[in-house]
Amino acid sequence: MMKVIKLFSLTQGLSSIQRYSQLHLLKPESVMEHTGFVCLFTYVLCEELDSYALTISEKFNRGAALERAIVHDIDEAVTGDIPRPTKYYNKHSIAVFDEISVRGIDQIVYELSLEKSSIKKDWSCSKSGKEGLVVALADLSSVVCKLWEEVVMLGNKKLFRQSKGVEDHLASFREKLKFDDHEFAMNDIQVNCFMEIICQLQEIIDSINEMPEAMHGTFGNFEAKP
Question: What is the number of domains present in the chain?
Answer without folding.
Answer: 1
